[in-house]
Give the backbone structure.
Amino acid sequence: MPELPEAEANRLRIARDCLNRTIEAAKPGDDTDHIELPGDNERGRLVGHQFTQTHRHGKLIFAGSGTGPWIAVHLGMTGSLRPFEADDGPPDYAKFLILFEGERRLAFRCPRKLGWVRVVDSPQAEIDRIEFGPDALEISRDVFVEVIGTSRGAIKSALMQQKKLAGIGNLWSDEILFRLGIDPQRKGTQLDEEQLGEMYDAMRNILRAVVDTQADYSKLPEDWLIHTRDEGAECPQCGGKITRTKVGGRSAFHCTRHQD
DNA sequence: CGCGTTGTTGAGTT
DNA sequence: GAACTCAACAACGC
């Protein structure tokens, strides 16, 4: 589930259903080998506190308060946050559970165990520790142009580097380049200032649009790549052919006719 | 059964 | 030495 818009949709679920309720317990779920979760001490720190605020930076999700500890959550490839009622039971693959007063609970689902949960002092402390760059929806145009325009590697890889720019992953980097007609292999240093400015605008417009749907892809316009990410598919913009290649070790989909 | 996977990391290379 | 590349990680679904 997880790039910036998907993380934002998950953050919203905490903000909507899990604030201002005293935490009675926090505990690991089933089959938690090889996944990073808070230990006894960290879990104990949460008890008796409430979450009163949430925050997101790139793909990182936070919940906490002005006076207590925070949780930091990274969804990995397949993670999600699910508020639920005690009567309904936790979802499958729940790896971490927070029990609030009353019946409300929060589950961290993570079927493939590439995500993690930490107890931290503040969002900023964790963002600094991980050395993530500016959030993709917060970064200024000037900084974006500088950071991406000086990247010597593939433009797609540059957009996905969280230390340059936090929040973009494989799907939305493809969508941005598809919109602009730029080949994912092109180098950042080959793009002029005008192209970089257009990229900044496209990035913001695309991420905002996905956030607005709460990452429900079926609500996105038909001519987006997201609906056609298949080898050999017909390009919804120009009728060209969608091709899968490898860029920076990841699958990249692009139209061989209008992206160059 | 083999392959691919919306993420990151660390070792190796330019 | 910074920037970059790539295989590895875990485990599920097709």
Q: What stands out?
A: Residues 33-35, 76-78, 93, 111-114, 151-154, 157, 248-249 of chain A lie near DNA strand C (CB under 10 Å from a C1').
